[in-house]
Amino acid sequence: MTDACGAAQDGAPVQGRRADEMIDVDPGGGDRLALAVLVQYRMATTEQMHRVIAPGVRIEQSRRRLAKLRNEGLVERITLPQAGRLRAWLPTSYGVRSEWPEFRGRRPPKAIADPTAGRLRVGHTLTVTETALVFLDDARRRGELCRPLDWIPEVYHSLGGGEAVIPDALMYYRSGREGPEGSMMRAFVEVDRATMGPERLAAKLTAYARLHAYVPVPVGRRRQPSIGQQPVQEEWRQGYPLFPRLLFVLDGTGPVGVATRISALNLAARTPTLAHFLREVPVLTAALTDLRSKGPAEPVWHPVQDPDRMVA
């Protein structure tokens, strides 16, 4: 969908604003949510932002809100090449530096360096945002809980030695309506746009299995605790009561390409060293087109160990 928000309506971004200068942003309302979402998601089109923050009102209100944030120097926009002049929004470094209690306890998101860098990342970033909307829209329809900031891109998980697993997104989702009957689901989401070969995609299973088993060795301690020492637990247990399930969302290719990638994941899942991980952690894969048309709660997911079966 083409963003019809013109330059005159948006105004010019404020240049050279000091960090301590007053900004005209409603701290408890829609402006703050819009900026927080854009900081966390890193990039979104006007239509995507509207669907995330205010789907119940006219899109012109979202355009005005983004224009206001641009005038305050908090966000900027780029025009995408070969996309019918579609525009995407991204936070400025000034916008990212705002105080965000939502980001306490984890690494703050990195701003995209500049509009040129944004154009290089636009395809993948916007597809990740579109994947978020699949879950947000479905949760709203079903009366379940998945708020805009429950989708957290690129959360860093250390493997030690400078290595890390960084999923495309970490999602929190509470199934069932509000009340004591609901249950919490957490998921690591990997969005694949067929820009890498199936074998490289399947290798991500091994990376997540390493994260599942990774136990850091504190300085001055041996890996095997001596008498009286408490055993060191896996690193991921500091953040999650259960290891999040792993969801692969496939895009950028037709049905044959999707089938090839599912087959590659299934072949990797037969590796004996992954057996314990796959017994403990559900790993599912689905095509983004199926998630859009049928919804993520429907039986559109293929378990990697049994790709001929489809589950909800």
Strand content: 15-25%
Looking across the biggest beta sheet, what order are the strands in? 4-7-8-9-10-11
Number of strands: 11
Helix content: 25-40%
Low-pLDDT ranges? 1-25
| Span of the ends, CA to CA | 30 Å
**Number of distinct helices:** 10
Element order: H for helix, E for strand: HHEHHEEHHEEEEEHEHHEHE
Going by helix content, strand content and strand pairing, the class is alpha+beta
Quaternary structure type: single chain
Report on the structure:
This protein starts with 6 loop residues before the first helix and ends in a 9-residue tail after the last strand. The protein is globular and about 55 Å long. It has helices at residues 7-10, 30-41, 46-53, 59-71, 93-96, 115-142, 198-213, 255-269, 275-280, 288-294, and strands at residues 44-45, 75-79, 87-91, 151-153, 157-160, 163-165, 169-175, 183-192, 245-250, 283-287, 302-303. The chain is α+β, with helices and mostly antiparallel strands and 312 residues long.
